[in-house]
Amino acid sequence: MVMTRRIHFDLDVLRSFALGVELGSFAKAADRLGRSTSAVSAQLKKLEEQAGSPLLRRQGRGMALTDAGETMLGYARRLLELNDEATAAIHGAELEGWIRLGLQEDFGESLLPDVLGRFARAHPKVRIEARIARNVELLDRVTTGRLDLALAWDAGVATPHVERIGETPMCWIGAADGELGWSRDSGEPLPLVSLDAPCLMRTAATASLDRAGVPWRIAFTSASLAGIWAAVAAGLGVALRTRVGLPGVVRVLDGGEVGLPVMPVLGLSLHRAEAEPAPAVARLESILRQRLEVIPLRD
């Protein structure tokens, strides 16, 4: 009977691979991990030798995943999450207390269940109060000590302890089915769907349309994103949001094709109530950051 040699993937190698893919650069991954670029390259070579197949291929000036690479990335993320969860459960089992977390509604479905689930399994003695709210409320609650940690879009308003952790383009969003039903040559104002004022993206949309000389009208307002998606899907107008958390009933419009201005990126920041957060808050922040690394903020 011939015994097949078992392959044991090195978690450090998998972490370098996963982080390089997520950051879009293995040089950035090396810097983040405190390693040299050559050391990370050697790790990738070792991983491909173990896999017995190329995991990356050249695409223009960058690299893209092969089919084997896509498969490896999925397993790498699962293995790393389980490893980190086990580490946290063993070393942080005695964490206790109460954490108040605030999030934008965009991240409610795409981020919150996984983050809270992972944290609760590792730290069952810590209670979490999560609040979904708009930017203004989140920043006010962090500043006044009613939230320990908040993930919010950059709105030009700083809190005492804030760190920019990413950015994503703002996009015009239309119904997934059917045509937009509006063109710049029609002479009709663009129907806009937005959250109730004050709204960061509503302001950005109207300001950019004014600069571009595109007439507009507010066709529908809602207090929640669910209402926005329903109105856009029904063809009542277009909205300005990001790619984060888009449901299948809407799609990103090609702004240049339909005559809408190209929008800039929108920053994403973590706000803390304290400069040195409590251990439980610091651990939740770590899990939040890890989860954000795998959310597609760009194309």
Describe, in plain words, how this protein is organized in 3D.
- Helix 1 crosses helix 2, helix 2 (26-33) crosses helix 3 and helix 5 crosses helix 10.
- A five-stranded mixed sheet has the order 4-3-5-12-6, with helices on both faces.
- A hairpin with a 2-residue loop joins strand 1 (56-59) and strand 2.
- It is α/β, with parallel strands linked by helices and 299 residues long.
- The radius of gyration is 22 Å and the shape is globular.
- The protein is 40% helix and 23% strand.
- It comes from Dyella koreensis.
- InterPro entries: LTTR, LysR_HTH_N, LysR_subst-bd, WH-like_DNA-bd_sf, WH_DNA-bd_sf.
- Belongs to the LysR transcriptional regulatory family.
- Pfam families: HTH_1, LysR_substrate.
- This is LysR family transcriptional regulator.
Short summary:
The protein contains ten helices and twelve strands. It has helices at 11-23, 26-33, 37-51, 67-91, 112-122, 135-143, 200-212, 225-233, 255-258, 279-292; strands at 56-59, 62-65, 97-103, 126-132, 149-153, 161-169, 171-175, 190-195, 216-222, 239-241, 250-252, 265-272.
